[in-house]
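Troubleshooting log. The previous run stalled partway through. Resubmitting the same two chains, unchanged.
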Amino acid sequence: MWTWFYKLASPPHVYGVAAAFTPWFLGLAAIALGYGVVDGLAFAPADYQQGDAFRIIYVHVPSAWMSEFVYTTMAIAGAIALIWRIKLGHAVAAACAPIGASFTVLALVTGSLWGRPMWGTYWAWDPRLTSELILLFLYVGVMSLRSAFEDAARGDRAAALLSIVGVVNVPIIHFSVVWWNSLHQGATVAKFGKPSMDLSMLWPLLSMFLGFMLFFGAVLCMRLQAEVLNRERQAKWVREAMHS
Amino acid sequence: MSAGTQGGGAGSRGRPVGVWEACALIVRRELCLSFRRPDQLLQPLVFFLIVTTLFPLGLSLQLSLLRDMAPGVLWVAALLSSLLSLDSLFKSDADDGTLEQLALSGQGLMVIVVAKTLAHWLVTGAALVLVSPLVGMALGIPTGAFAIMMVSLGLGTVTLSWLGAIGAGLTVGLKRGNVLLSLIVLPLAMPLLIFGAGATDRAISGASVAGALYFLAALCVFTCTLAPFAATVALRINLE
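Second attempt completed without errors. Output:
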């Protein structure tokens, strides 16, 4: 069973699979995102409290969700690579990090743009925004640790360990930030109550979720191809694939 | 370390060395090394004092205003000054090969990591706790809050030493790992800052500090249990 598994994770095989999946992921992502954007921005009813400004959630919430999902994926891939010494895991983790960091930046930017009309300021020390910011720092730490090593294999393993340590810390950071906020209640902007969502608003949001996931899959496949090629640049199959 | 220590748990005098004895020996060696270079021992403490001096200079002379800022100032300064000394935790021993000899000594690498981190805390964290009343006084923290402040700093610096041990283990093989070390450790230490400054803040205002102290203690126990494994793996990645 294990030989089968290792064969599945062999670089040429992964390269081929990633190449085959990319157009599918891209196509499906385009459909899901297309529906979500059109329905969410044009047809969903405006929020009774926030007006049309609420529509930014169609980008903000999926990207915030993806920022955590990608981090977890990266940590799991790193753990698999560390424990079973499967090199593919490092390639997946390395491909995940910049994507996740971009989602985090997107969530932060859209969050502060949303904060401007809602709270009257671009940045409030809201617990969610703060823990998102710390998540960005964690991403930056993992990425810079990986690139700091001259020996790429060592950098991979160090980054994998750091991402595992980080994933243990993410809930602690989240809850401590929430607790901290309740401590400083007077200083922060009071959070508005979240109205339960109407189905006509929810469908485009779910579609955007799906679209973001598929988009992540597509970008991951593309980056993974590049990672595998870069890591295997001395191998015979790469030369053959490039010359054919 | 003589070459004779390599034979499966045998000490340099040919008798087996137990885990506790090995631990005590390493702690003694580290303490001895630190006290032979007192300037290096004092530098983080002086840095701690200087950073806390910067805040009144930059903010205001009013003691009432300083008192509001004091917990945050105190904890940020403590965080920065313990980061400063982290670089020496494994680095000098790794550079001259002592760490490899220790790793080959037949004792588990984790024993070495635990002993070195403990010694590091004794000369940096514990010293910082002892100096903190001085800073507390300068920042206008009432003397009644000193006990809580020192307990929270004690718990916090233990946690910080362990988080730092992971970071120091990860960056030990790098030539210029200093800034990267801060980049790695500081985000992980943010919960510590929240609860530590929170506890001190509540002690000053006379509110109940139990919740924050429990959280600090929980974080301390949590890192003491898991961080040795992570730090050992981190070190092994660099030693192999």
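Takeaways: Chain A touches chain B at residues 82, 134, 137-138, 140-141, 144-145, 148-149, 154, 157-158, 161-162, 164-166, 168-169, 172-173, 176-177, 179-180, 183 (CB under 8 Å). Residues 10-186+199-243 of chain A form a domain with the Four Helix Bundle (Hemerythrin (Met), subunit A) fold (CATH 1.20.120).
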